[in-house]
């Protein structure tokens, strides 16, 4: 398995686990209240910081455990990375547009923050999935 493919798997797993942790914390705090009334900011910031720290640690561990190719990327790796990032970034744009629309109609901050966070997570997961598929099934550059 190419090192960049390992990084894609790591990013997808960290993103999903981080968001699942956040959702569990927020839903656990709801206790029958409307979600918009649940304190969420600290859980959101801690899970984002935790996901960043986890991805750094996982990258270091992967580099130590299987160092071959850790600092090397060929043309195919660069093209797969670029294409996966472009695919994933579309969700950042969707999230930005959705948040803008929600702000214009004055939705609660809870929903705006959560749609942005969800789209960042979807960006990481979809981009990583595109990279993994490209490594597993082949990649045809245009």
Brief account:
The chain has 142 residues and is mainly α. It has four helices and no strands.
Secondary structural class: mainly alpha
Main β sheet profile: none
SSE order, one letter for each helix or strand: HHHH
Number of strands: 0
Using brief descriptors, characterize the structure shown.
globular, mainly alpha, 142 residues, 4 helices
Give an overview in words.
Helix content is 79%, strand content 0%. It is mainly α.
Q: Topology, pairings included?
A:
Blueprint: H1 3-30, H2 41-65, H3 75-104, H4 109-137
Helix pairs in contact: 1-2, 1-4, 3-4
């Amino acid at each position: 398995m190419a090192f960049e493919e390992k990084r894609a798997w790591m990013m997808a797993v960290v993103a999903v686990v981080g968001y699942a942790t956040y959702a569990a914390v927020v839903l656990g705090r709801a206790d029958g209240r409307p979600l918009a009334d649940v304190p969420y900011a600290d859980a959101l910031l801690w899970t984002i910081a935790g996901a960043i720290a986890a991805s750094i640690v996982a990258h270091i561990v992967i580099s130590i455990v299987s160092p071959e190719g850790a600092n090397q990327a060929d043309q195919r790796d660069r093209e797969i990375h670029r294409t996966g990032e472009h695919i994933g970034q579309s969700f950042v744009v969707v999230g930005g547009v959705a948040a803008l629309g929600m702000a214009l109609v004055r939705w609660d901050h809870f929903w705006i923050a959560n749609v942005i966070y969800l789209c960042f997570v979807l960006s990481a997961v979809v981009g990583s999935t595109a990279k993994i598929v490209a490594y597993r099934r082949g990649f045809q550059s245009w």
